[in-house]
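Please review this one.

:::
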Amino acid sequence: AAGKYHFFSLPIDFKNRCNLGYAFVNLLTTEFAAELYRDWHHKHWEEFNSKKVCEITYARVQGRQALLDHFRNSRFPCEEDE
């Protein structure tokens, strides 16, 4: 996947130490998006003994700059004082 995307965000639940079950990826070309969809959509996570299935969908926010703007003021619990 190196060189195929320029934005990736995997929201984490720091209290429970696990991801929230979704991610945001901005791919560089429509060909890379088609490849990601073909390779991962409806893939089962067999190596983790999970019944979860990967589902690829289009995001409401599109484009690297739009994603950076969208997440610019996000708060990250790992950076907060407890």
